[in-house]
Specification:
This protein is an alpha+beta fold. It folds into two domains: 23-225, no CATH class; 230-369, 3-Layer(aba) Sandwich (NADH Oxidase). It has seven helices and 16 strands. Strand 8 (154-159) and strand 9 form a beta hairpin. The longest helix is centred in the last third of the chain and has 24 residues, at 309-332. The chain starts with 22 loop residues before the first helix and ends in a 5-residue tail after the last helix.
């Protein structure tokens, strides 16, 4: 489909805001990206990538879910291409500096010069998840590259023949953020000239499947950790049982000394929710209404060990990690979440409403559902506050 005059990205990816980086800003981004490249060599891979050589190629910035992404690539002396991105939280007030920098990089031996049949030179990284109809999840994907044919003016990302993002080619480069791998449909990247004539097309179908036959990953760990937010407004559709079971299974991989498996998850149904609301309103008038915020509520508890305070403390920590893994996994699947610790869970009536035994301690309620709002990015304490290096 040709580019449109007033294209509005359908998945809230903002168009490029700045020219390609230069000056001190480019120096800061360069340091972040080269640090990510250096971490490749620190891994377990025995591949000799050589040294970086030449200038970094920067691509247009794009902003999604509160973070700005600037892709980059650079060659090495062993003829590899290192590619990745630098992301950060834009300043919200005049005079403030960007914060929350994160960078990642990978490498490939497949370069344009060795593939004369290529018409587009593309790189891609999954940066998040988007949840659509009937619980289907798309992999929000950062795609960047260069046209390798003449007259390229606009690049359009299409999913199932629907335009989902568009970028004007800037200095021979472009960047897209679009949903991919949605209901077995994959992105097509199309290049057009300034008259709307298609010049090239490349599909992002998945070539390789993992050992269990899966396709694209949901998102990388650090992206999931940095982009998860607390949400208090949700759609009406409950999270399906299969997805919840996936999340609970993921939670069982929380670190757990002695393998006591102390965590317990209870998915509230209509009657248990009514009982809990009644107990909450009896304790604090009107507080039960807050339990209607999300279409799915999961009560988290752990089995206590009063006879051994050390084990009890360890199991409390393990169960808290398990609860966090549920939230993190939900976010990776395009869901929103909220960890509440309502007072009703600390009284016998609230515990009885959920069928918790005397040997259990409630850790909270996880609110889960489809997101209905963008959340601001909260400030985090710096390393000078939270970290100490001891002698």
């Amino acid at each position: 489909m040709p580019p449109v005059d007033r294209f509005v990205p359908r998945f809230a990816a903002e168009p490029p805001q700045e020219l390609l980086p230069y000056g001190r800003w480019a120096d800061r981004l360069k340091a972040e990206f080269l640090a990510a490249c250096a971490r490749i060599d620190d891994g377990d891979d025995d591949e000799d990538l050589g040294e970086t050589t030449g200038e970094i190629s920067w691509y247009p910035d794009r902003t999604w879910n509160g973070r700005t992404y600037i892709p980059a690539s650079i060659r090495t002396t062993e003829n590899y291409e290192l590619y990745g991105y630098v992301s950060y939280l834009p300043a919200t007030e005049k005079g403030e500096e960007p914060s929350g920098f994160f960078s990642t990089a990978d490498y490939t031996a497949e370069i344009a010069e060795a593939n004369p049949d290529w018409q587009l030179d593309l790189c891609e990284e999954v940066i998040g998840g988007w949840r659509g109809e009937e619980g289907n999840v798309a992999a929000m994907t950062l795609v960047w590259g260069r046209p390798l044919v003449d007259r390229g003016a606009v690049v359009v990302a299409e999913l199932a023949d629907l335009p989902v993002d568009q970028c004007v080619v800037q200095e021979g480069r472009f960047t897209l953020i679009a949903p991919d791998a949605y209901r077995k449909d994959y992105l097509d990247i199309r290049l057009f000239d300034d008259r709307g004539t298609e010049l090239a097309c490349e599909s992002l179908y998945e070539d390789d499947e993992d050992e269990e036959g899966g396709g694209r990953g949901l998102m990388d760990l650090e992206t999931a950790v940095r982009t998860r937010r607390t949400h208090k407004a949700y759609g009406e559709t409950p999270v399906d049982r299969a997805t919840l079971e996936e999340l609970f299974e993921l939670a069982t991989w929380a670190p757990n000394h002695h393998l006591t498996n102390p965590w317990r998850f209870r998915v509230l149904g209509p009657r248990s929710l009514a009982r809990l609301k009644q107990a909450a309103d009896a304790q604090i008038a009107g507080s039960g209404a807050k339990l209607d915020r999300a279409p799915t509520l999961v009560a988290v508890s752990y089995v206590t060990s009063p006879q051994d305070p050390v084990v009890d403390e360890e199991d409390l920590c393990s169960a808290a990690v398990a609860a966090y893994l549920v939230l993190l996994g939900a976010h990776a699947r395009g869901l929103a979440g909220y960890w509440r610790t309502p007072a009703v869970l600390r009284i016998p009536q609230g515990r009885a409403a959920l069928g918790m035994g005397e040997d259990e301690r409630a850790l909270g309620l996880l609110h889960l559902g489809e997101p209905r709002q963008e959340q601001r990015v909260p400030e985090r304490a710096g390393l000078d506050v939270v970290a100490r290096w001891l002698d």
